C-alpha cells in the first residue's frame, strides 16, 4: 500500500513549490499531488515546466494529480469554449509533468445538474487529446454533486473512458455517502482516493472543511470498512493525503509531511484486520 502513498501539496500549501516536492520525497512519499496555481506562480517567476519536471525527477517522485478544474458544470453555454480552453491548458501542464490525472470539482452552489454529464463529456474529450483522465471529486459541502451516488451518475452518463471519480474520505462521510454505494462501482473508475480525518466537532463546524480536518487515525472517521470496501472492488490507485487545516500552515512543513506519511502507514493494518473498524 505504501507504494501508492501520495502527498497532496494542499497539506503543506504555504510552502514554495520546489520545497513541496522535496519535502514529499524526504518524508517517504513516492507520489505527489500538485496545484495548478502553485505551478502558475512558479512559471510567472520565470521557472519553466521543464525545470519543475526536473525537480520532480530528481526527487524521484511521480506527479499523481493536478488540482483542479472548476467552473465546468454551471457555466453559460456561450462561455463553455473558455472551459475547454482551460481544460486543454491544464492537460498540457499535466502532460509536461508526466501526470495522468486532472481533478475536476463541481460548484458548491446549485448549478445545472441535468447538464453536468454533457459538460463533463466535452471536458473529457478535450482531455483525451492529451491522454489525461478527468477525476470528478464530490465535496460534501456541494449543493448537488455531494455524494458518491450522484457523482457516479454524472460520470456514468458522461460515458467517457477517461472519466472517473475522486473519493475524499472526509467528504465521503460529510456528504452522506454509504459504504454500500461502493459495491456497484468498478474499482478502475475510482481514479484517486484523498485521505484526511474529521475532528470530533459538531457537523456544522465540519462544513468549514479548512478548519477541522486532521491526520487519518486521529479523528472520528471509520477507515477500516472504507479501505476494505475499496479493496473489495479492486481499487488500485493512489492514496493521497490531503489535509486542509489552517493551523497546519503554522507548523513546520517537514514535520507535517513526516507525520502525514506515518498516519498513512497506520492505515495499512486496517485493510488486513477485519475486526478493526476505525
SSE series: EHEHHEHEHEHEHEEHEHEH
Query: In terms of per-residue confidence, which ranges show pLDDT below 50 for 5 or more consecutive residues?
Result: none
| Average pLDDT, all residues | 94
Number of strands: 10
What's the end-to-end separation, in Å?
17 Å
What structural keywords apply?
278 residues, alpha/beta, TIM Barrel, eight-stranded parallel β-barrel, 10 strands
Q: What does the model show?
A:
It contains ten helices and ten strands. The protein has a single domain, classed as TIM Barrel. Helix 1 (17-27) crosses helix 10 (253-272), helix 4 (80-96) crosses helix 5 (116-128) and helix 5 packs across helix 6. It has 278 residues and is α/β, with parallel strands linked by helices. The strands form two sheets. It has an eight-stranded parallel β-barrel, surrounded by six helices. Strand 6 (163-168), helix 7 and strand 7 (190-195) form a beta-alpha-beta unit.
What is this structure's SSE topology?
Elements: E1 5-8, H1 17-27, E2 31-35, H2 36-44, H3 49-58, E3 62-69, H4 80-96, E4 101-104, H5 116-128, E5 133-137, H6 148-158, E6 163-168, H7 169-174, E7 190-195, E8 197-198, H8 203-206, E9 213-214, H9 223-232, E10 238-241, H10 253-272
Parallel strand pairs: 1-2, 1-10, 2-3, 3-4, 4-5, 5-6, 6-7, 7-10
Antiparallel strand pairs: 8-9
Helix pairs in contact: 1-10, 4-5, 5-6, 9-10
